[in-house]
Amino acid sequence: MNVGKPFSYGKIFVIGSGFFALMLIWTFYNAYMPLILGEYIESRAIRGAIMGLDNLLAVLLIPVIGAWSDRMNTKIGNRLPFLVVGMPVAALFFMLIPYGAAATLWILLVVDIIFLLAMTIYRAPVIALMPDHTPSEKRSTANGVINFMGGVGAIVALFGLSTLYGIDRTYPFLVAGLLLFLAFIMLYFTVDRHPPYAGNTEDELEETQAAKSFFHGLSQLKKPEFRGHLFILIAIFIYFIGYTGIEALFTVYAVEHLRMEESAAGFTLGFFSLAFVLFAIPAGLLGSKRGKAPMMLLGLIFLPIIFVTIPFLPYLQEFVPSLNQTLLLQITLFIGGIAWAFINVQAYPLVADLGGKSKIGFFTGLYYLFSMASAIIAPGILGLLMDLFTHPSLFYGAAVSFVVAFYFLRKGSRMILWKSAESIKVS
Questions:
Q1: Using DSSP, how many helices (H) and how many strands (E) does the chain show?
Q2: How far is the C-alpha of 318 from the C-alpha of 210, rounded, in Å?
Q3: Average pLDDT over residues 120-126
Q4: Using CA atoms, how far apart are residues 74 and 96, in angstroms rounded to an integer?
């Protein structure tokens, strides 16, 4: 029992600063790395495959590192050694990315791989700091703080760092790297060496859940009673292909097809993230009132319609010359972000509810398995569509993924409702 142990929201905000820096860097990296790679690699499929590398490393290595940090015992505790190595190295090599890009492709790739490995080293331990410092009854609130700061980090990356990118390409990398290093300093001097609520927090890490679920989870899903559950998980896998592909390749479309400035492309994408953050809570409340699956289905109807309209926006300017194409695209993406909030806010709670209280951990692992697996392959798949056809196929491919996901989610949720009704009749 940890009754009477100290708890500090101040420490939670400091831990949140680590997640802020994490999301700041990942969001900026996902938006601009494909453009930097484009200086050497024409193929969008190859660029997309490289962009999926961080998710592959996450699935393969983070569970091992998370478990290792659970067992490690040093003078500075079990999490901080990974932060001491990972955060400064990640900060340094992130700052080196534009300089590597100015040299050769191979130097850029070496810098990129070291950066990705360093991020992988500290990601699980920094996330585990929250449950280490928080009693179980306060973890939902603390997690809300952490995720809010992560959302702010994503918005700052696409609005603030994109503006800096337009001034000088090295500036946002330097600023983000320094912010990551500052977060490390704050964490090092603030968090407890031996936190009061530390235990085995491995099961609370999404990548660990994904790895643990792989073989056991897939074998369980073959059973007839899990057919509806499987369809819902397939829906999540498929629509994350569309979302992750847009996230990684939108700036490529905007710069190469619309001839937009690189900084303006990232800034424009920020409106999608901004809408998601603003409407996440209202979407959650509507899901609680109207049902999670119905709200997701509503979002899966509207988002593909919005994506399909995007390639046609430039033609509107021919009929109405006074229209500002960039502003129109920003408004459209903002509306798309609202639809994405209806989908994504409900997804994890829906999956967690599938097996009842006794199987929350099991279905949590399956959720992260299916969502992260799609993030590995999505940029490469949609990049290949752009190579084979044209840039607008990015949005058509994403729209198709959401339409197919609608079918599987609707079918899966209906099967589960039918089985629930049958079990009630039997009882």
A1: 16, 0
A2: 48
A3: 79
A4: 31
- Label residues 20-30 b or e (16+ Cβ within 10 Å = b): bbbbbbbbbbb
* DSSP-derived 3-state class of residue 43: coil
Residue 410: the pLDDT is: 93
Angle at CA of residue 208, ends 205 and 213, nearest 5°: 125
- Total Cβ atoms within 10 A of residue 415: 17
Task: Give the CA distances from residue 406 to residues 110, 411, 421, in Å, rounded to whole numbers and listed in that order.
Answer: 40, 8, 22
The predicted-structure confidence for 99-119, as pLDDT tens digits, reads as follows: 999 999 999 999 999 999 998
What is the C-alpha separation between 354 and 230, in angstroms, rounded?
10
CA distance 330 to 337: 10
The two tokens of residue 291 are 């049902």
Nearest to 255 by CA among 190, 179, 166: 166
Residues 6+ apart with CB under 8 A from 408: 231, 232, 234, 235, 238
pTM of the predicted structure, to 2 decimals: 0.84
The residue type of 404 is V
- How many CB atoms sit inside 10 A of residue 321's CB? 7
Per-residue pLDDT tens over the stretch 284-310: 888 888 888 899 999 999 999 999 999
State both tokens at 329: 């695209």
Domains of the chain (ranges, CATH numbers) = 9-204 (1.20.1250.20), 207-420 (1.20.1250.20)
Mean pLDDT, the chain, as a whole number? 84
CA–CA dist 208, 223 (Å, integer): 24
The pair of three-digit structure tokens given for residue 185, joined into one six-digit string: 């300093």
Quote the CA–CA distance of 292 and 340 in Å, as a whole number: 13
Look up residue 60 and give its two tokens: 């393969």
Cβ(291)–Cβ(345) below 8 Å: no
Tokens describing residue 303: 């988002």
Question: Count of residues for the chain?
Answer: 427
Query: Are 251 and 262 within 8 A, CB to CB?
Result: yes
**Positive/negative CA dihedral, 253, 255, 260, 266:** positive
Helical (H) or strand (E) element with 146? helix 139-156
Which burial class, exposed, middle or buried, applies to 233 when counting CB atoms under 10 A from its CB (0-12, 13-18, 19+)? buried
